[in-house]
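USER: My hope is that you can spare some time for a protein that puzzles me. I am handing you a single protein, as its sequence and its fold in token form. Walk me, if you will, through where the backbone shape changes along the chain. The protein I mean follows directly.
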Amino acid sequence: MTKITKIIEIIIFFIIIPALLIPVNSNVTMFTTLSSVAVICFFYLRYKKINLFDKNEFKFDQSLLQIFYKACVIAILILIFSYIFDKEKFLNLPKSHFFLWVMILVLYPIFSAFPQEIIYRKFFFQRYRKLFKDKKTFILLNAFLFSFAHIIYLNPIVIIFTFLGGLLMAISYSQHQSLFKVSVEHGLYGNIVFSSGLGNYFYHTQGISFG
């Protein structure tokens, strides 16, 4: 495929489709779309004979240790922000909805973070990395598109947080090229956000309230 064709493909799949989901305002539609796109990306990778995982990436090495160190720093920063920004909802999910919180801690990394990383890191890097000569430009684009996917929440906090998180994860993935490790990183960041009291901003809460 030509460079122009792939750029058009990026615009359609990573800008137009998320934008079309804005008026839907439905968690079911959002997760169905996410799962469907992740499956398509999975079959593309299989067609290209690219495995999702390599057995060596499951080792507890320096890069995984760095992810946990970063997560600790991120947790402190997010907890401070959450306390200052909305003291009433600070740590409300674990305090008021303990079993829901535990369920999110377990299910979010598997059913949300992992599919997103298949799409935005494993697939995106594999298919579009060669379009950009400059690595920094590519990483910034990846972070922007990852953030733009969350435009459905129509909240500037979500856009800012997901851009910064996307930037951290894109940098990490460009270094270790491990879907497992970047999924762990994504899962940790997401669980920190939900635990802090900011979960309402990252979820369509019709019928459900974390606060």
About this structure: The first helix runs from residue 3 to 20. The CA atoms of residues 12 and 55 lie 34 Å apart. The two ends are 48 Å apart (CA to CA).
